[in-house]
Amino acid sequence: MVCVLAEPLERRWHAGPCSGAGLCAFLGLVIIVVAPLLVCIRTGGFLLEEATYREDPLVFFQNEIVVTALDSAGLPIMTWTSIPEINAMLGDALRFPVVTARERDANFDGRPEDLEIDISLPLLGTEHVASVNLMLGFSYELQDAADMTMQSLAYISEA
After folding, report:
1. Average pLDDT rounded to a whole number, residues 108-130
2. Does one domain contain both 30 and 64?
3. 9, 37, 64, 141: which has the fewest C-beta neighbours closer than 10 Å?
4. Coil, helix or strand for 112?
5. What is the mean predicted confidence (pLDDT) over 134-156?
6. Statement: residue 153 has pLDDT above 90
7. What is the DSSP letter of 93?
8. How far is it, in rounded angstroms, from Cα 136 to Cα 153?
9. Cα–Cα distance between 92 and 77 in angstroms, integer?
């Protein structure tokens, strides 16, 4: 037999918004769309391409120091470090300076603002210092948004 026309059977059921089906549709919308959107907005990561963060770090002098005094020709007159193993390798260039270091917290916030280092070099009567090189070890800490601790080195050269 030849089929001339076929129409599918179509039935529709409608439920109000206060029915069980309406409640399931609403909960599905909240779980699939609204909840992830609120999580993204609340965590601050929604379409975040660039952010700036500022914090005053905790910087402490670790009493790690290397002092080298040079003459006018650029040759070392004396060298000293706070690391005994390196001092043992220096030989005749090793001399012990008097070093005092003091950190000052001017506004009493627990973060030192100034570091004052006094170095007295023991020189012979014929020696003349043309430049001094310092390497100082510091501890650098961030604690608010980023929890980070690192060791840093400051190099100072004064002629």
Report:
1. 85
2. no
3. 9
4. coil
5. 91
6. yes
7. G
8. 6
9. 10
